[in-house]
Hints:
Number of strands: 4
Order of helices and strands: HHHHEHHEHHHEHHEHH
Largest sheet: 2 strands, antiparallel
Number of helices: 13
CATH superfamily: EF-hand
Distance between the termini: 25 Å
Amino acid sequence: MPWLISQLGPDATAPLKSSNVRKTTQGNRGAAFTKYLGMKKLKKHALGYIASNLTQEQVGYLGEIFQKIDEKGDGVLTLNELDQAIADGNFPASIQADLRQLRDKLSISEDATLNWKDFLSGTIDKTLAMREDNIKMVFNHFKHGADADHLTYQDVVEIFGGEAQAQEIMGFLDSDNDGVISFEDFRKAVEVSMTEDLDEIVDESVNRE
């Protein structure tokens, strides 16, 4: 131990200050929360665009379900209508689970209603959404220029609505750190956003100490 201290200095064996631990934990939590928000926004944008481009055949019975829940026939669903649909339990278990998630999201958001596009985004078959051709369609929608084969930082700013979040999430999207986002980078990010339990990201990141 004396040799180690002589090489590294007396601070080598000193315990970490609580303030440093707090800063590390807060930093981990902040980065994890930024990633969480970014992935949620990426998922929302991707699913929204895919949903708006589905064929009638791909939409299938979801249109009928929406119409059944939309008692007023005004093209939007309210919390009361969702509550009633969940209470009645007249839909398949998978749809019931999606309705509960939509209801929970709606209850904590600033919106009081859910339109058809939002409903479709929340109930669409994720296997369909994660098909490579659909992800490629979203990628092409986000990038600028028909000849471009990647997303730029400015594209990310527009997707996430500001530079602060774009800077934080860029590191996650740009997995090989080459300054641009290839389709492969984008595909992996979209798949993670749709398959991982995003609510666990913050806890997992903070606990890695």
